[in-house]
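Record type: monomer structure entry
Structure origin: computed from sequence
Chain ID: A
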Amino acid sequence: MRLKTLAPGSAIPAGAIKEKVRGCIVLCFVVVAMLAAAGTAHAQLNGLHLKGDAGLDSGSQAPPGAYWGTLFYLYNTSRINNQSGTQVNTAGSLTVPAGLGLISVVTKQKFLGANYGFTVIPAAILKTTIESPRLNANSGVGFGDIYIQPVNLGWHLEQADVTTGFGIFLPTGRYTADNANDNNVGLGMWGFEPSIGTTVHLNKTKTWNASALASFEFHTDKRDTKQHVGNLLTLEGGLGRKFLKGAANAGVAYYTQWKLSDDRLAALPTLLVKGKNSTAAIGPELTIPLATKSKLYGFFTVRYEFEVASRTTTQGNALILTAVFPFKPIKLK
């Protein structure tokens, strides 16, 4: 999970690097087109990226400041699909609750014209981690894998924002090879995730916005095994409209994820379905400010996304609740 825009409508005009904005938009569409033609192979292990953790304004960096926040995530499913999207299970269900805290800092230090920032998520508290498509998993509660993003750069232009970063997943969560005790809350591997995205303001008043954030995920072998999760691409964003003088944002959010390369499944038990993982989801999102007439204390976001096209994985629904606060309340003019 990565902290994105905390103050809708707070873009800082810069008037340069417009070609970078166009390049980011073209990149997103080119990547999607390339992946749409990807073939299938024997691969289906899940990655570390929390699908749906970013939505509207996903391509924007927060204004300079220090922030803390909490996120509650709830994923529910009773369906496993095969390569063609047909349900293959006849019974069973799975609910994955998770809660996490985060700290994010955006500085006024500039690098290539961008503000430098970083984010730390100490550890998510999980009930279950889905290593491969399966239902009725029932692990105990525990601390999952830690996520840090030591580098995050943000450009704020007249009609668009651009952001890029590099994140690392640390395998700190409880993990037993091949899930032998059905009690894992981590995935037992390191993950590395470069990302790039943009939020485009569609009119001069910046009330309408469209965003896309592409995150590329690479992994090491799983602990005590020769299993290796293939590379993943996750695309997240949305189309929204701002109100309350730009402090609130409402619209439709989405996420899609594709497996780019094959998994290595050495010694893994027989799988229910085979093929490259892919999924897509869409749903409403609302962000509102937590403020008085004189001070802004934070923002609250609710997002609910329905998976509508899953292949070789589970298909369900995800609820994400996020509250983010500046360490020091912001005075309003």
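Annotation 1: The two ends are 31 Å apart (CA to CA).
Annotation 2: Helices lie at 18-36.
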